Amino acid sequence: MAGFDKRVSSYEEAMEGIEDGMTVIAGGFGLCGIPENLIAEIKRRGTKDLTVYSNNCGVDGFGLGILLEDRQISTIYASYVGENALFERQMLNEEITVVLTPQGTLAEKMRAGGAGIPAFYTATGYGTPVGDGKEVREFNGRPHILEESVVGDFAIVKGWKADRYGNVIYRDTAQNFNPMAATAGRITVVEVEEIVEPGELKPDQIHTPGIYVDRIIQGSFEKRIERRMVREG
């Protein structure tokens, strides 16, 4: 990787520098648009005591769920537990700290962190356990709680296409948390299905400008579906 060329040739190089105790922001929603190979590299490295910000924690045996198997995650800020039995068990047994966070608040934590905004007020969560112990201020007659933004040591993101300068396009619903996560990492790593030459992506199609991206790698993906629902004939 040199100059404006953000490409790396291996997942080991892509996640170089990640250490125990770091904070990782992960894009994706359920299993849609998750950086599955970057997660697998964290698993391979055995990095532990991680604080993770993600919409959820994958499923048993896939996505962020594989990091639970060896207890690599110590704290996670997530919107729901989902269908991950191991995640549920570790939470109930207090083997992992789970900070349940409304989805919009979680997305804004990432967006605000990427924009250099240290905190923001939101009405969401006021009067519930989400707001316990947080500063309250009234706007237009309605109470709001103060939420702190987040900047991770690493942000891991899944894109569709990128050029070697790191400009990224997400496909369909894989936009979910990925654009916000991409802005909120001190080191942002993006894995994509295809890398093209600069100029091949139309400027008005780019979702994440390369200024936010430090490393980019092309991979292949399983794209597992969290739950397949079919109608009986």
Q: For the record, what CATH class applies? A: Alpha Beta
What is the CATH H-level superfamily? Glutaconate Coenzyme A-transferase
The beta-strand count equals: 13
Note the gap between the termini: 53 Å
- Main sheet characteristics: 7 strands, parallel
Compute the number of structural domains: 1
Structural class: alpha/beta
CATH topology: Glutaconate Coenzyme A-transferase
Model description:
This protein is of the alpha/beta class and 233 residues long. It has a single domain, classed as Glutaconate Coenzyme A-transferase, CATH 3.40.1080. The protein has five helices and 13 strands. The strands form three sheets. Strands 4-3-2-1-8-11-13 form a seven-stranded parallel β-sheet. It has a three-stranded antiparallel β-sheet with strand order 5-7-6. A three-stranded mixed β-sheet has the order 10-9-12, with no helix packed on it. The chain is globular and about 50 Å long.
